Amino acid sequence: MNSSTKRPPALSRRSLIAGLGAAAPLALLAGCGxxxxxxxxxxxxxxxxxxxxxxxxxxxxxxxxEADPEFELALEGPSxxxxxxxxxxxxxxxxxxxxxxxxxxRAQELDALLAPLDDLAQAAGIDLAEYNEAxxxxxxxxxxxxxxxxxxxxxxxxxxxxxxxxxxxxxPGATYTMDQFLDNAKSLTSGDSYGLAISAGLxxxxxxxxxxxxxxxxxxxxxxxxxPKIIEGLQFGFDLVTEHQVxxxxxxxxxxxxxxxxLMNGNVAMYLDGPWMYQxxxxxxxxxxxxxxxxxxxxxxxxxxxxSGFGIASNAKDxxxxxxxxxxxxxxEVIGAVAHSRGTFPSIVSQEEKWAEGKPxxxxxxxxxxxxNGAPLITTPTWNEVGSQFSQYATEGFQGSRSAEEILGEIxxxxx
Amino acid sequence: xxxxxxxxxxxxxxxxxxxxSTGGPGRRRGGWPAALYLSPGMLGFAVFIVVPLxxxxxxxxxxxxxxxxxxxxxxxxxxxxxxxxxxxxxxxxNTLIFAVLxxxxxxxxxxxxxxxxxxxxxxxxxxxxxxxxxxxxTPMIGNALIFRxxxxxxxxxxxxxxxxxxxxPQWLNTPGWAMLSLVMMSLWxxxxxxxxxxxxxxxxxxxxxxxxxxxxxxxxVNRFFRVVFPMLSPTIFFCTIMTVIGAFKVFAxxxxxxxxxxxxxxxxxxxxxxxxxxxxxxxxxxxxxxWVLFVLVMLITALQFSQQKRWVSYDS
Lengths: 416, 316
Fold this sequence. Notes:
Chain A contains 17 helices and 15 strands.
């Protein structure tokens, strides 16, 4: 640069604004690093798909705040579908929340993320036996409890009382055989109107029936998808579509919302789902909503219990403080309050009365029969892969081009 | 080369700059400013392309979960891919079928439509160009959801076919139809881009050349194959390269339409890669799949470049 070279002019206003404009997005990006600025021990990472989810978590906070006005808990998280992927990356960050939610069925998959709670519970004088035994079993990984369950929800058969009455059929209840179920489904099917709706997910009708008949998809921590009872249960589900034609073949993708809508619109008489959907179905069907047990060969109730709970991140810096937050939202009073306001079936027996308030006696009896005679769905760390592969193959089962034995055998061989 | 350029005498009228003079001392003098101007782009390229590419190569030699400590496994991920994962070969086969069908139909129809638009001319041609291009700028996932509703067993398409007395197939629930549905949806979405590019290429052909061929007695078919096609071949070559690369990266269509089913009938390489990385917690294996895909696309593109002399004419 020689002396004749012009000095660069001072920054003009335009340059300054342009520079600031360029810097602003960077600053915004830097601010999107995931840090909420909240105390990790008082931050819960959970699924928040919609306002309904947020209201449920808020119900826990509100109930806990009634007992302790100083109690604070911040919420953070993606939609339910994204949660199972994002929770692993979020928990890897330096400012990760210390609390997280898990389903019992996913506790094995999130093994590395969840800290054992037994010693913390013992030190705090908490009796874990107070909670639903099946759910504590579901939350146990490698012999240690990883989350405190807040609900214990057996899969149940929802039905439309009005359609049963129109068909001149006796409504099912706390006992229900597969033969009765099939007869009812046939009676309730006419023309384009089907007796029941089916979704293509793995843990639905077929799996619940196989489970009720004594089958189990996981034995001693290993996949046992080829358990004869599980195969029979899933084949029974396929046959309802292909052989008996009492249900429409579910769509290849996202079949569950469509099936739920069929029940809510009164287009079908029956659909198998979890009690967490009770309030939504009650809002749609009113007094016509009935609940029965999952049909089985013997007609006796045996529930496939699913549910969720709160755990502590394995890399939490202050596990004691995090555990104190969990205990504040899993007291019997809080769980009862949420069961009453949000309709989740509680994980503590003493709170079932609060859940039952305002519900028809028969519906309550069916859910309780399944909950009391149920077992948790215990899975493997590869369960996500199992579910994903089943979604791909299920349409072939519902078309009758492949049997449940072939499909489950192939998945077992590929993943097991 | 720089030594052959004599410095201009001070005060003399500078000689006209020749091609060789731009590569000599002038180039060296412009080195730093050029580097400065290039640096933002090169920095972005390095940070967002080169570094992730190299890191993914390293990850492919590990069993790398989303959470927890990775474990070095050497070539195990590649061994499992080639000898232990049946879904890899199925997804590779599906990707190849999709790429061939999609590329061939896309180019043929896009070429035909752009030739038709050239002959149509005027406002209608402009209207149709916009119409064909609209799907390109709409979100793929939204389009896929609409197509899913239309192609359901009792969706709009089958209802229309039923009204005509034709029993519609199970578009998304039978293997052959499901693949065809993916191709149809992708064509609808992606063809507009090639129509615009090929249209621009056709517009660049000198009208006098076309007029001369007319005077010489060439009919529309002869004119297309003997005049338009050779002169358009560089543009067609560009479209082929881009379309093949895009076809190998197909993901959103099977993800939203079929989830890879029925069975593995529409499971593609990128869908298989995504699932392994983000659903099945196997980032190492997903990285290995990504590298195989990268090498595969690179080889196919190199093959296309090596064969272009046979049919691409750069004589204007």
